[in-house]
Each structure stands twice: as C-alpha cells, then as structure tokens.
Write a structure and sequence with these properties.
Blueprint (H helix, E strand, L loop, with lengths): L13 H8 L3 H13 L3 E4 L5 E4 L8 H8 L24 H17 L10 H8 L5
Helix pairs in contact: 1-2, 3-4
Length: 133
C-alpha cells in the first residue's frame, strides 16, 4: 500500500518504509525480495536507488498475493497430509469447519486488488508520507 501511494515510478527505500510502519528492516527486506522475485516490485540498486511497484495496483489481487506469499495454510496439524499426528483426525468435525473458514477468508480477499485499498490515496499519503516518524 505504501508504494501505491507514491507517484508512478517514484522510488522508496526499505528504511523509509520500515520507519513509517515501525516494522523490522530485516523482515521487510525479505518481503521486498519475495515481491521482487514475483515481479510485483522493481528494485533499483545504487546511490539514489530504491523500490517501486512494477505493476499497477489494480493488477495485484490480494487473495492471490496471500496465497503466493504465505508458506502454508495449516491452521491445525490435521491440515497436513504428511506428518499428521492428531489422534482424533479420523473422527474430527472441527477440521471441516476450519477448511470452510479458510476458504471463506481467501474468497473475501479474492474480491479485492491493492487498488481497492488506495481509494483514499491522498489521505493515506498524508499519513504515510508526510506524518511524523
């Protein structure tokens, strides 16, 4: 969302985003690397370099993004096909409800693109870009 508040092509730095969101620079570096590998973020190396969106916000489906960036959706052990040690798996009805809940969660996210969360771009930019650190 931060990169979406910037003008097209305008660069941001990992440090800048880390400061604004008060998140770990190391963690953000890993996230940016993954988004770059996926082609969603472009990185420019060297002095004056940074990162920017590589695709339009309306081309980034949130549900697809979550599926691509999450390691797994094993809410409980029995979701794993291998290594399931749960002794009640064969009779458990909870896992069905949890599968249904996970499907509903992803279905809701599938309805949105990053652009949907930037409809108040000016308000977000005022907070993220101009607000106090």
């Amino acid at each position: 969302m931060y990169l979406g508040t910037k003008e097209t092509g305008e660069l941001s730095t990992i440090q800048e985003i880390s400061n604004r969101y008060n998140i770990s620079k190391n963690h953000l570096t890993k996230v940016v690397h993954e988004l770059g590998r996926m082609g969603l973020v472009a990185t420019v190396r060297g002095r004056g370099g940074g990162i920017r969106l590589n695709v339009r916000p309306d081309e980034i489906n949130v549900g697809q993004l979550v599926r691509k960036t999450e390691d797994d959706f094993y809410l409980v052990e029995c979701f794993r096909e291998d290594g399931n040690q749960c002794i009640i798996s064969s009779a458990c009805r909870l896992k069905g409800a949890l599968h249904e809940a996970l499907a509903a969660y992803l279905a809701v996210l599938d309805k949105y693109t990053i652009a949907d969360f930037l409809v108040n771009k000016e308000e977000l930019a005022a907070i993220l870009l101009d607000g106090p650190l």
